[in-house]
């Protein structure tokens, strides 16, 4: 872990359900390769994950079973370790490349900018040559101008110990927000292609492995599942998904399951399958983990675990300790991360937050909502273009622009990027009638279906993030519970200990998936967008409010949502188009505004 990371807290744990074939899964790590320095549950770093993988490989080899590592994309954008370097990703690409990942694919974030998809093409794909899969993703080669697959479309391999023949694909959901140097083919089209149709007819396969930056319960995965099942009704299929930042486990049929392993290096997913045929080895060293061999061939069994990313969990799952757990390689990568964080001055403090501000753990609006803070304090203080200073303005931003919580205490360079990693600037349309402008937010948040045909839905690009509505209310006493607690199997099962708050996931296999037994946390949904009204004439009474409304306003918005703003304006019967828009506050972006606001308002 990083030197300044919060030490992990002991907690009752569920064991890893080892099988014949085992997987470790990361997804949507978004540059959090240093781990969460302020959160004990997630404070392990990528170096610790390397040690974990190496220790579990040792165990797998000893027992003659297999272990594969999978990553399903969105490795970038969302943390100073990635976003603060020039060029972006200067350190994280190398840090990520230290892990021995068997199958990986791209997420949508790798494709927002030409530079980031070129990083994939020139660095990550070669680093993981043969393992990086791009089943429905092409790039325009910067040198030749030719469109070509970002990486190979699929791969076939045989596992080392068990001899399981695996055929793997790597997909991205039907993403449309990519820059102009990549081409994402709709999954439903890709599966009609000759290469795919031939691949799924291969009879020499024991397991289809579909990794994707795709949520588990989507048309994309449903189409791939159906296409494979049409050709092979009983071959086992294992999906690994991502994008929605949740822990999830889906059953498609008795031989097809999917796992999604959260976000931001909070979760290492563990998945195991027993009862797979081992066609790649005639006299395979088949370990009978759970069932007699004959029965295994007929019906595989599946298990999953969501490991909290901290050293307490890692030590327990490897039966090792502080001294025996870390490998030399793991330690070296932790040092690489520490040096990178130092070079980037990520711990430099801009100010100190007086309390916690939550993205989804407080209702919006409320005093603990990060969105209320942005709307009521930051934007009104900061959004002003000197050339338009006297004009009242309405500022709209997508809530997705703010990515993570602020914890009470030091607000650092790193925090700036965990909260607001994007480089989007502001644009505006001048002198929009207030009668029109005031209706926009409602339209964007209600997603009027006629306005957003399926392919253009905001829900697609601006999903409700990271939220699985919970019916539980968190016990406030437990919110900051820390310190040691008694540990033991009996305690764990009886819940006879004070539990730390954390993920309490319910999925298709029930509610015993999390490795750490936690007290539940309540998550709240937030709207797609919010609005600040700034420089409006002040009204003294309720009655005078309406007459004080301005006739027209400058309609200011973060540039990421321009196309939605223009669509919504069309829906309202206007004919505003791109030609009517212009830059507002040249050279400024949300990240910079937040950093400046914190420096000016939150002294330590
Ligand atoms: N320049 C950008 C890019 C993305 N966003 C927000 O992020 C969302 C996508 O992130 P996922 O981790 O969910 O893939 C996107 O829907 C936007 O909300 C942004 O604000 N600016």
From TrEMBL:
<dbReference type="Pfam" id="PF21953">
    <property type="entry name" value="NadN_nucleosid_C"/>
</dbReference>
<protein>
    <recommendedName>
        <fullName>Calcineurin-like phosphoesterase domain-containing protein</fullName>
    </recommendedName>
</protein>
<dbReference type="InterPro" id="IPR006179">
    <property type="entry name" value="5_nucleotidase/apyrase"/>
</dbReference>
<dbReference type="GO" id="GO:0016787">
    <property type="term" value="F:hydrolase activity"/>
</dbReference>
<dbReference type="Pfam" id="PF00149">
    <property type="entry name" value="Metallophos"/>
</dbReference>
<feature type="domain" description="Calcineurin-like phosphoesterase">
    <location>
        <begin position="22"/>
        <end position="246"/>
    </location>
</feature>
<dbReference type="InterPro" id="IPR053828">
    <property type="entry name" value="Nucleosidase_C"/>
</dbReference>
<dbReference type="InterPro" id="IPR014485">
    <property type="entry name" value="Pesterase_C1039"/>
</dbReference>
<dbReference type="InterPro" id="IPR041823">
    <property type="entry name" value="YHR202W_N"/>
</dbReference>
<keyword id="KW-0732">Signal</keyword>
<dbReference type="InterPro" id="IPR029052">
    <property type="entry name" value="Metallo-depent_PP-like"/>
</dbReference>
<dbReference type="GO" id="GO:0005576">
    <property type="term" value="C:extracellular region"/>
</dbReference>
<dbReference type="GO" id="GO:0005829">
    <property type="term" value="C:cytosol"/>
</dbReference>
<dbReference type="GO" id="GO:0009166">
    <property type="term" value="P:nucleotide catabolic process"/>
</dbReference>
<feature type="domain" description="Putative 5'-nucleotidase C-terminal">
    <location>
        <begin position="356"/>
        <end position="566"/>
    </location>
</feature>
<dbReference type="InterPro" id="IPR036907">
    <property type="entry name" value="5'-Nucleotdase_C_sf"/>
</dbReference>
<dbReference type="InterPro" id="IPR004843">
    <property type="entry name" value="Calcineurin-like_PHP"/>
</dbReference>
């Amino acid at each position: 872990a990083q030197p300044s990371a919060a030490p992990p807290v002991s907690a009752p744990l569920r064991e890893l359900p080892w099988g014949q074939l085992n997987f470790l899964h990361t997804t949507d790590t978004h540059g959090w390769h240093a781990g969460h320095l302020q959160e004990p549950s997630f404070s392990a770093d990528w170096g610790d994950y390397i040690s974990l993988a190496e220790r579990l490989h040792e165990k797998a080899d000893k027992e003659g079973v297999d272990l594969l590592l999978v990553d399903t994309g969105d490795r970038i954008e969302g943390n100073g370790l990635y976003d603060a370097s020039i060029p972006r990703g200067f350190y994280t690409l190398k840090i990520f490349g230290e892990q021995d990942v068997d199958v990986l694919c791209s997420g949508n974030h790798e494709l927002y900018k030409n530079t980031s998809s070129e990083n994939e093409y020139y660095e990550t794909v070669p680093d993981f040559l043969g393992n990086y899969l791009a089943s429905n993703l092409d790039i325009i080669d910067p040198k030749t101008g030719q469109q070509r697959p970002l990486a190979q479309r699929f791969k076939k391999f045989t596992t080392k110990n068990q001899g399981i023949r695996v055929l793997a694909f790597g997909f991205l959901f039907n993403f449309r927000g990519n820059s102009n140097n990549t081409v994402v083919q709709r999954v439903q089209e890709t599966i009609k292609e000759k290469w795919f149709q031939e691949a799924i007819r291969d009879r020499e396969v024991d397991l289809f492995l579909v990794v994707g930056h795709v949520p588990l319960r989507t048309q994309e995965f449903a189409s791939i599942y159906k296409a494979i099942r049409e050709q092979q009704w009983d071959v086992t299929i294992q999906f690994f998904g991502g994008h929605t930042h949740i822990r999830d486990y889906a059953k498609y049929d008795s031989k097809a399951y999917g796992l999604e392993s959260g976000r931001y290096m909070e979760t290492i997913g563990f998945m195991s399958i027993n009862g797979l045929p081992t066609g790649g080895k005639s006299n395979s060293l088949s370990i009978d983990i759970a069932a007699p061999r004959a029965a295994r061939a007929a019906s595989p069994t599946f298990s999953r675990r969501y490991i909290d990313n901290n050293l307490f969990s890692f030590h327990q799952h490897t039966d090792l300790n502080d001294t025996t757990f870390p490998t030399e390689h793991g330690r070296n990568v932790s040092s690489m991360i520490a040096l990178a964080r130092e070079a980037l001055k990520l711990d430099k403090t801009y100010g100190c937050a007086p309390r916690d501000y939550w993205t989804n753990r407080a209702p919006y609006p409320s005093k603990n909502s990060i969105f209320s803070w942005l709307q009521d304090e930051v934007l009104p203080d900061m959004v002003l273009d000197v050339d338009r200073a006297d004009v009242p303005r309405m500022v709209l931003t997508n809530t997705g622009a703010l990515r993570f919580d602020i914890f009470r205490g030091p607000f650092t360079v790193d925090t700036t990027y965990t909260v607001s990693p994007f480089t989007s600037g502001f644009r505006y349309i001048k002198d929009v009638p207030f009668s029109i402008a005031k209706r926009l937010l409602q339209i964007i948040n209600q997603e009027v279906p006629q306005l957003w045909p399926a392919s253009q839905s905001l829900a697609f690009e601006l999903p409700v993030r990271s939220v699985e509505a919970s019916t539980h209310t968190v016990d406030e006493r437990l919110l900051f519970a820390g310190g040691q607690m008694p540990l033991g199997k009996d305690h764990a099962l009886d819940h006879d200990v004070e539990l730390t708050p954390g993920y309490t996931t319910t999925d298709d296999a029930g509610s015993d998936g999390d490795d750490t037994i936690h007290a539940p946390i309540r998550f709240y949904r937030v709207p797609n967008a919010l609005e600040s009204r700034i420089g409006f004439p002040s009204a003294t009474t309720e009655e005078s409010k309406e007459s004080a409304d301005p006739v027209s306003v400058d309609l200011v918005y973060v540039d990421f949502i321009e196309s939605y703003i223009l669509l919504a304006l069309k829906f309202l019967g206007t004919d505003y188009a791109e030609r009517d828009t212009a830059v507002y506050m040249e050279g400024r972006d949300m990240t910079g505004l937040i950093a400046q606001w914190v420096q000016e308002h939150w002294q330590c």
